[in-house]
Amino acid sequence: MDLGIAGRRAAVAAASTGLGYASAAALVAEGVQVMLCSSDADRARAAAERLGHGTQAMTVDLTDPDAAAGFVTGAAERMGGLDILVVNGPGPAPGRVSDTALADYQAAIDRSLLAVVGMCLAATPGMRAQGWGRIVAITSLGVRQPYPNLALSNTARAGATGFLRTLAREIAADGVTVNAAQPGLHETNRVRSTLPDPDALSAALATIPAGRLGAPEDFGSVVAFLCSQQAGYLTGAGLQVDGGAYQALI
């Protein structure tokens, strides 16, 4: 299917590896001009070179909300505008509520809530002015059913979800959609680091009807569709991409 976005300009955050990279690759395959970022300059350049097709890279600390907003502003300046924003970033450290200090929450909110807000605020004026835009935030299945041992992530990403839904309502009439792709367990370095032994992996797979970890490439295809011309009437949605792990009716 031709997604109708060839020639569009996209900023894809935290895209040197994992789900961010897979999302950038899916957009590049559709003919989208991509600017990606990473906190590591070498990884950012290497990812852009692998993707090819004129992909550009920036080095950005996405744990800093101002720097995250600056990535979007810089991408728009270098590409002559922005049509698509894929919001992504490093997740907070694991930990239980009972083991997490109050002071730790601010850093989690900076990276997983305020950085999201900053990127969106930087992108939306130009998108609204041109009457077309797509914002897709890579969040987590934890906003639907909180994960054990991820108190900081569950808290901050829930706030980001509320912001995204509110923004979607405010700018839908301007031709700009805002959606979230909520990954379950995928074959990424972060997930593998949380499942360090076969028993942990087996226990995790037992919760997934599909019986396997998700492929990053499959997730990237979902993100690309949410950015498509065909998805223009889909906004304010949180789409779980989890192999059937989420079982609630709503």
From TrEMBL:
InterPro entries, per the entry: NAD(P)-bd_dom_sf, SDR, SDR_fam
Origin: domain of life: Bacteria
Family, as annotated: Belongs to the short-chain dehydrogenases/reductases (SDR) family.
Protein name: 3-oxoacyl-[acyl-carrier protein] reductase
